[in-house]
TrEMBL record:
<protein>
    <submittedName>
        <fullName>Aldehyde dehydrogenase family protein</fullName>
    </submittedName>
</protein>
<dbReference type="InterPro" id="IPR016161">
    <property type="entry name" value="Ald_DH/histidinol_DH"/>
</dbReference>
<dbReference type="InterPro" id="IPR016162">
    <property type="entry name" value="Ald_DH_N"/>
</dbReference>
<dbReference type="InterPro" id="IPR016163">
    <property type="entry name" value="Ald_DH_C"/>
</dbReference>
<dbReference type="InterPro" id="IPR029510">
    <property type="entry name" value="Ald_DH_CS_GLU"/>
</dbReference>
<dbReference type="InterPro" id="IPR015590">
    <property type="entry name" value="Aldehyde_DH_dom"/>
</dbReference>
<dbReference type="InterPro" id="IPR016160">
    <property type="entry name" value="Ald_DH_CS_CYS"/>
</dbReference>
<feature type="domain" description="Aldehyde dehydrogenase">
    <location>
        <begin position="30"/>
        <end position="479"/>
    </location>
</feature>
<dbReference type="InterPro" id="IPR044086">
    <property type="entry name" value="LUC3-like"/>
</dbReference>
<dbReference type="Pfam" id="PF00171">
    <property type="entry name" value="Aldedh"/>
</dbReference>
<comment type="similarity">
    <text>Belongs to the aldehyde dehydrogenase family.</text>
</comment>
<dbReference type="GO" id="GO:0016620">
    <property type="term" value="F:oxidoreductase activity, acting on the aldehyde or oxo group of donors, NAD or NADP as acceptor"/>
</dbReference>
<keyword id="KW-0560">Oxidoreductase</keyword>
<feature type="active site">
    <location>
        <position position="256"/>
    </location>
</feature>
Length: 484
């Protein structure tokens, strides 16, 4: 199977109106909603607000398309997905610009990294396959395990990494023989609508449908009897609603939820070279990252010097419009999140915690700009330590005893990821093994891979994305037994 793509022909018009993809057709809606540029407060565009009927049409189209799509082999579906990667590549520069415009992240750094990674993911996932496995083969009996498609998958995505997290779902879902209806966050629907439009040039009609609108669309999907699985990335609070509503027809669910990731610097760590790494880990994407480092524990013998050095480095960084090449950290994506941060900053100030950098939000600015903020050793029960801030604010906390800091790291409802840093690799690994989280990095951070499963423990989620396990979550396990 060879799905031919001529990149020049795959270029779509990014100046045109935003449309949904339903049953292979590009459709608008009588109702629209405004999407804002978080750096300016201005309107980027109007997006279609899909009606309930349009959601029904999208689900019906996905259902109708699924048997023929599932009848193709992994290789055949992979060829379509690889062609999709080529088509995305042909539109890459426009996708990056749009991502910065609607999401805020710097075009020259985070936005480019996100789109490059997303296209790479699509291209690589296309090459994977779930082969049947013979687990028993005796003289008179064979047992074979297969992975069959689930049917129609509903995908619901957040606003912090709309391109990457959307394509993380699309590629494995389609590869394994399912069809999809995707609903992006109402804060960042535009890039998703465009990559849906690009997809309509490649996939058979109904295989990938994109519907934009409000939160209620998520509910319509989770309660719909013709959807077999929900692949959800978003907050823990919404994840619980998704789980409850999905019970109606026992949908399979993958939930990628919030986190409050600790980083632990063990005693005598040579921290100077780590400061830029830890800065990016905490403040990249303006802290709006499920796996951002959100609590940094440093041994009390080093904590004071560490904070001085960290603040000196952080002071050189610039918050601004992501289209400006001098910007290191962009704005907060939406006013809901901006207001949550206003409340957290007010609490941090009112409680008299030691704010070593930033701390004052200038509300007279047009954009949702929040300063890079470092809080020196706030108490363990403070909001800035206990909550997922989802903004550019980091508590740096002193500890005396390693067992005690492990307990503190684990004393949270979340369990998404963590990092441990130390001069003795084996000791750091031993500490890492005791952290209750889906991913633990030792002396490195934020490594992801096509073949590396990623998911949260405790209330950070259920199931995984990526890796063989991530592919299997888009399938039913089916066991064949044959008498010879
Ligand atoms: P959110 O939960 O507010 O929204 C996520 C999506 O759910 C949106 O598309 C929204 O429209 C939809 N939604 C809202 N109500 C719904 C309902 N009742 N039923 C179904 N869908 C509904 O999350 P957000 O603010 O967009 O994203 C930020 C959160 O996402 C943070 O907590 C962050 O940690 C988490 N996140 C997790 C991961 C991960 O992989 N674990 C990755 C990125 C973000």
């Amino acid at each position: 199977m060879n799905v031919q793509v001529n990149p020049a022909e795959m270029k779509i018009d990014f100046g045109g109106p935003y449309v949904m993809s339903i049953g292979g057709k590009l459709v608008g809606s009588n109702e629209t909603f405004e999407v804002y540029n978080p750096a300016t407060g201005g309107v980027v565009a109007n997006a279609p607000a899909g009606t309930r009927e349009q959601m029904e049409e999208a689900i019906a189209a996905a259902k109708a398309a699924q048997p023929a799509w599932a009848a193709l082999s992994f290789k055949e579906r992979g060829a379509y997905i690889e062609a999709y990667a080529d088509a995305l590549e042909a539109n890459k520069e426009d996708i990056i610009t749009l991502l910065t415009t609607e999401q805020g992240k710097p075009r020259h750094s985070m936005a480019t990294v996100e789109v490059d990674a997303a296209i790479y993911w699509v291209r690589e996932v296309a090459k994977r396959e779930l082969k049947n496995e013979v687990i028993e083969d005796t003289e008179d009996h064979v047992v074979e395990v297969a992975h069959t498609p689930l049917g129609v998958v509903g995908a619901i995505t957040p606003w912090n990494f709309p391109i990457l997290l959307g394509l993380w779902k699309i590629a494995p879902c389609l590869l394994t023989g399912n069809t999809m209806v995707m609903k992006p966050s109402p804060y960042t629907p535009l890039g998703t609508l465009r990559f849906g439009e690009i997809a309509q040039q490649i996939f058979p009609e109904g295989v990938l449908n994109i519907v934009s609108g409000g939160n209620e669309q998520g509910q319509w999907m989770t309660e719909h009897p013709d959807i077999s699985k929900i692949s959800f990335t978003g907050s823990t609070a919404t994840g619980k609603k998704v789980m409850a509503s999905s019970a109606s027809n026992l949908k399979r669910i993958t939930l990628e939820l919030g986190g409050n990731d600790p980083a632990i610097l063990l005693p005598e760590t040579d921290y100077e070279p780590l400061i830029p790494v830890l800065f990016d880990a905490a403040y990249g994407n303006a802290g709006q990252w499920c796996i951002a480092t959100k609590r940094l524990y440093v041994h009390s013998s080093q904590q004071k010097q560490f904070v001085d050095a960290f603040v000196a480095y952080a002071s050189t960084k610039t918050v601004g419009d992501g289209m400006d090449p001098n910007t290191d950290i962009g704005p907060i994506q939406n006013t809901m999140q901006y207001n949550k941060l206003r409340s957290l900053f007010a609490d941090t100030k009112d409680k008299g915690y030691n704010i070593r950098l930033g701390g004052e939000i200038d509300e007279s600015l047009d954009g949702n700009f929040v300063p890079i903020t470092v809080v020196d050793n706030p108490p363990e029960d403070s909001r800035v330590v206990q909550e997922e801030p989802f903004g550019p604010i980091l508590p740096i906390i002193a500890y005396d005893d390693v067992d005690d800091v492990i307990e503190k790291a684990n004393d949270t409802e979340f369990g998404l990821a963590a990092s441990v840093w130390g001069p003795d690799r084996d000791e750091a690994i031993e500490v890492g093994k005791q952290i209750e989280a889906g991913t633990v990095w030792v002396n490195e951070i934020h490594i992801h891979g096509i073949d590396i499963p990623f998911g949260g423990h405790k209330q950070s989620g259920m199931g995984v994305e990526n890796g063989r396990e991530g592919l299997e979550e888009f399938t039913n396990t089916k066991t064949y037994m044959f008498k010879k």
